[in-house]
């Protein structure tokens, strides 16, 4: 009765196959409110070119592609609300389903999944090496290695939650802002 409708996986891959759509969703997730198509196109053009402001021809190309192709496509799947007359766009909650398919890259240039796997394997190796009394590792108790690894996991998770735009933390911030906004009216 209260099940969320999932987007079929084939459609998810089709939607995310375009870099501009991925960037558009990421930029929109970072915003708490609606955004004009012009602002969105400028953000995407800057991300593509690395220049601020991006060259006018690139901004216009991005604007036209968003208006004619990408926003109608995302709207048809119920991921964004796009008002073509006002040229205003905002994400819908359903769009968050796509974030699990968009693994973000850390400052070090590896995905978070790769980072956590490496951290876990490294911590496990250190604990086992300490238990096996391998020189250098035997100096510390295995509990120290396990505690340090868990501490790194916790700190990394907090950092990821605080900096990633596609996380639940941003959604909680938006919800809180909406509640505060309603109370002030």
Helix-strand layout with pairing:
Layout: H1 9-16, H2 19-30, E1 35-36, H3 37-49, H4 56-76, E2 80-83, E3 88-91, H5 112-131, H6 142-163, H7 168-184
Antiparallel strand pairs: 1-3, 2-3
Classify the helix fraction into a percent range: 55-70%
Helix tally equals 7
Rg for CA atoms: 22 Å
Instruction: Summarize model confidence as the mean pLDDT.
Output: 85
Structure description:
This protein is mainly alpha-helical. The protein folds into two domains: 9-101, Arc Repressor Mutant, subunit A (Orthogonal Bundle), CATH 1.10.10; 112-163. It has seven helices and three strands. It has a three-stranded antiparallel beta sheet.
Can you summarize this structure?
It contains seven helices and three strands, in the order H-H-E-H-H-E-E-H-H-H. The protein is mainly alpha-helical.
Task: For the structure shown, list the relevant keywords.
single chain, mainly alpha, Arc Repressor Mutant, subunit A, three-stranded antiparallel beta sheet, 7 helices, elongated
